[in-house]
Design goal:
Number of domains: 2
Protein name: CopG family transcriptional regulator
Distance between the termini: 61 Å
Radius of gyration: 22 Å
Strand order of the largest sheet: 1-2-3
InterPro entries: Arc_rbn_hlx_hlx, RHH_8, Ribbon_hlx_hlx
Number of helices: 7
Order of helices and strands: HHHHEHEHEH
Shape: elongated
Number of strands: 3
Helix content: 40-55%
Strand content: 15-25%
Structural class: alpha/beta
Amino acid sequence: MVAMMEAMVRPRTAKVPARQPDSEKITINLGHVDLGHVDLLVAEGLFSNRSDFIRTAIRNQIERHADVTRQSVARRSVELGLRHIDRASLEAARAEGRMLDIRVLGLATIAADVTPELARAAIASLDVLGSLQASPAVRAALADRLR
């Protein structure tokens, strides 16, 4: 019984995969008057903080221009959301003699086990509207193909 209790409270030593962040930090510059308006709205309780105001304003603009976004996504053949590019899919493309043109609106991730050589051999172009997560070596190898 004691051994079972010790096993239950013993910390786990297995590696937990690192969680990908679900947002990215940006920096903006606002004029003093605009910032004052934001702070006033926060002080009045309409928003919990400046970031809440900015996120809401961005979402409102995205919603306001949703038709333009939908048309552009369809015209440009862009994938919405998350696109994970793994080693197996790049090796398959290379084996078939194809080069991939990847377009993502959201987050594109390139697996950590993808080598710079494999990325260059299989990716013709990479157009990411949002964020790209890849090793520095893969980013450097694809620098001339990033848009």
